[in-house]
Design brief:
The chain is mainly alpha-helical and 170 residues long. The protein folds into two domains: 67 residues; 85 residues, Tetratricopeptide repeat domain (Serine Threonine Protein Phosphatase 5, Tetratricopeptide repeat, Alpha Horseshoe). The chain has ten helices and no strands. The chain starts with 6 loop residues before the first helix and ends with a helix.
Amino acid sequence: MIFYRGRRAIVVLIIGWGLLAGNGDRSSAETPSEGQMVAVAVGAYEDKLYPVVESQILEFLKKFPESRHRLEMTYLLGRTYFRQNKFDKARETFLGLINDDAVDTADQTNGLFWLAESCGQLNRWKEAKAYYLEFVGRTSDSPFLEKSFYALGLISFQEKDLTQAETYFR
């Protein structure tokens, strides 16, 4: 049935089988390359195969903790947890991402938005508000900007700060 999800699912399965089979060479089956693991995780995410994404990224982060793809994969892991309604894990993952000492990246900035969303799903409104505010202070061109202002308006409305809510809704 999975073959009907699209070409990417087929590619993910073929790559996965190739990694497992390893052409008879057991060592190559146990050590997929960094690029292969990223490709499998991204393809699986696009096909909504979230358990595959989760296991690939966790293994990737263990094998390649200093990879140049580390932040990208951490961001994708957080999004995967969020998509699976694992909001506590998403929150933890995004906190780790934004607190990473690496040079600030778009993944870290967008991670702030998803951290705020995760906090909102956990009814941690004050925390969510702080992260939304930090997010809108860092970016002016994100596709998540309007949703952030809307969420800030809703939170302000909940706090009975109608003047502030109106400002965010504009």
